[in-house]
Amino acid sequence: MKKIELLSTFTVFPEIHQLPNDVLDLMLKAIEIRKKAYAPYSKFKVGTAILLDNNEVIVGSNQENAAYPSGLCAERVAIFQAGTIFPTNTILKIAISATSDLKPVKKPIPPCGACRQSIAEYEIKQQTAIEIYFMGESGEIYKSDSLSNLLPLGFDKKYL
Asked: Active-site residues: which are they?
């Protein structure tokens, strides 16, 4: 038997105004679109903004459903829309912001497992790392240089 150790590294920005200007603009779009989230059950609202290599920005917010598995997270709403409208463009950056109507969200909220797997598909497809920035409603912002940093033992087409 042997042990392996996996290490994930993040850059931490203490607050939103310390982000690079292009990322700040992207995060502000994520914050704005999260206000349009349909989250009557969880009261947990997430917004995502995606920057493509053609400078288009695609946004998405979570969309819940009474049959919980039928809803979609903000990240998948946005990334599937980007893949549909701009299938040949490269995703450069993703900004994610989350808040709750029930309690303050002061810690960065990363993509859930299903969203990580969906983002991984596009990172592998385009063969280029996607920068991912995530935050709560305020406070620190974490930056991951790629999705593989968030999902180091990912599943992809090579296993099929």
From this structure: 75
